[in-house]
Fold each of these.
Amino acid sequence: MLVIVMLIVTIAIWLLLMPVVPAIASATLHRFHLRTPSFAAWAMQFPIPAMYNFANRYKVEADQVSLESSPEMVPLDGRMVNHFPARIFTFADGRYLHLRHGEDRWLTIESSYRGQGLRTRFHAEPAEGFGFDLHRLDGKPETQ
C-alpha cells in the first residue's frame, strides 16, 4: 500500500512541476516522440498520465520531404492528436489507415509546450514479407 501511495505522490509532483521545470517538460516531449535516451528512462515515465499535455500535430506524406524544405518549428500544417503522436504509425487504426497499401510513408510529428517544441520525422518502409520497418530520422529540439 505504501509503495502505491508513494508512486501516486511521485507522479503528482512530476505533473505539478512540469509547467515550471523545463527539464521535466523536455523529458515528456521526448517520451511522446519515442526519443527517450534509454528504455529505462522511458519505463520510469510509463505510469505518468499522457493525455492532453501538449499541442501535438502530425502529417503523413507519401513523398519524402527533406528537413531542409520543412524548417524546424515552422507550424506544421497537419492534424491534431491528443497524446503520443507517433502512435499514428505504431497503433491500431492509424497503422491500418496509413500503411495498408504497403508503400513508403513519412510521418512528421510536432509537439509544443510552454516555449519548448520538438519535431521528429519517421520513415515507414515496407519490410520483406510483412509489416514495416520504422526509422526515426534526425531531428532536434527547438525553442519557439
Amino acid sequence: MSLLEKLKAGKKNKNTIKFPGTDQDIIISVLSEADIQAAHFESERLFKKNGIEVSMSTVDAYEAEKTTQILFRACSDTDGKPLSKTVDEFRSQILKAEKDILVDEYNSLEQECSPNPEKISTEDMEKIIDEVKKRPEMIGSVSNIVIARKLIVSLASRLQNSQQGSGSTSS
C-alpha cells in the first residue's frame, strides 16, 4: 500500500502482530482523533473519580493511564473484538513490558500511516505527488489535513514555478 493510500485509509490502517511474549495474533489499529480524545477524557474521569489531582508526583501515573486507555482502544483480537471487556480488566492484566512493546508497535503504525508532516522526507513527498498526478481525486480523501495542506502548497508552488520558468506570468 502506498503512503498516499495509507494516508487516505486513516482509521482503517491496521497491523497484525503477536501479543508480546506469545504466539497469539492481535490487531493494532490507528485511532481517530475522537478515540484519542476519549482516551484522554476517560483518564481525566478516572483521576477525578478517585480524587487524584494531576501533580508532579502523579503525572507519570496519569500519562500511563492515557497510554493504557489508548492501547485498550487500539488493540483487538483477530475478529475485531477488544482484548478485554473493560479498560479496568485490560489494565489489571497487562504488564508494563507488554505495554511498552504495544506502545512501540502503535507508534510505528501511526508514523507509517499518518507521519508527522514536518518529518515527511522529500522522497516520500515526491512519491505522494507522483500518485496525485496519476489520480488527482486522491488528494480530497487524505485523512491528515496537515499533510493534505502541505501537498496542496507543494503542488501549487510547482505550478507557479513551472509557469514562471516557461515565461508565463499570467496571474
Amino acid sequence: MEIYTELAAQFDRMQLYASSLPQVLVHWVQLLISRYELTNRLRVAASRNQLRHSVAQTFEQHQRDAAALRQKCAGLVPRH
C-alpha cells in the first residue's frame, strides 16, 4: 500500500506537468488508462492469490505507454 500511495503522489505531480503541455495530452491519457488497467488486473490477481499472463501483458503495455510519453516529452526539450 505504501508503494501505491507514493506512485499515486507521483502521478498527481505529473498531472500538473501534463496539463501544461497540450502536446503530450494523448500520451498522458493513454498512460493513465494503462495504469488503471494494470492496477485493476493486479488487484484481481491478488484477490485470487495468483498472477496471470494478462497481468504481464498489461504491465508491458503500461511500460510502452510510459516510454511513448517519455519520448514525446524529450522531443519538446530544445537541443543545443
Amino acid sequence: MSKNLDWLITNIREDLKKASNREIEDIYNSLKKLLNKYDNDTFIKNIKDFLKKVLKSKREKCSLFFEDIIEGIDSMSDKTKQELKKDLLDLSNIHRTIFEDLAALIGAL
C-alpha cells in the first residue's frame, strides 16, 4: 500500500473520532456509497457485518463501514486502488480542520 494511502486511512480514522454529528451524517452517507462500490464480501460475511452494525451509533457504523472497505485493499487492482484513493480523499475533505485547510493552501503555493 502506498504511503499516501496509508496517511489517508490514518487521517480518516482520526476524522471519524473528531467529526461533528452533522459531518458524521455526511461521512456515513459517503461511506455507504463507497461500501457498495468497493466491498466484495461474500453473502455470509455481509450478514455478519450487518448483525455487528445493528445496534451501533452512526459514528461506530462509519468506523465499521470504513474498516470493511479497507480490508479488501490488498486484493484490489492498481486502477481500483487509485479510484479508492481519490474517493477517500474526497471523504477526508468532509471533516477538515482550519489547520488542514491552511496546510493545503500553503502546499498549493
